[in-house]
Amino acid sequence: MPEPLTPFLALATAGLVFAVAAILFIAARPGAPGNAVLAGALSAGFAAFSAVTIATEGLLPVVLNHTNNLWGVQVWYDLLFSLSVAVFLILPRARARRG
């Protein structure tokens, strides 16, 4: 018997759907310029969701989720590597614009 759709599974699925749609949209328009307003809005939404999660659940579950098993450590590494790649790609452009 399949598992029922929980709110957490629904949130995770919605995130996957939106991420795939965004990736396909970006890939279909390789010459399109970036949109700072959209990037800022997405960042604000992510920050707001993170703030609600931390206010509701606290910080300890973050540590427990990422140190409980190899999947947790894998997700932690995914986050660290994606942050590193983002900084690697963004920092030279930011420096070039600054001066």
Q: What does it look like?
A:
With 99 residues, the chain is mostly helical. The chain folds into 2 domains: 1-58; 69-99. It contains 4 helices and no strands. It has helices spanning 7-28, 36-57, 60-67, 70-98. Helix 3 (60-67) crosses helix 4 (70-98). The longest helix is centred in the C-terminal third of the chain and has 29 residues, at 70-98. The protein is globular. It starts with 6 loop residues before the first helix and ends with a helix.
Please provide a brief summary of the model:
This protein is an all-alpha fold and 99 residues long.
What is this structure's SSE topology?
Blueprint: H1 7-28, H2 36-57, H3 60-67, H4 70-98
Helix pairs in contact: 3-4
- Share of residues in strands: under 5%
Helix share, percent: over 70%
Q: What does the radius of gyration come to?
A: 17 Å
DSSP summary: helix tally: 4
Attribute tags:
99 residues; mainly alpha; 2 domains; globular
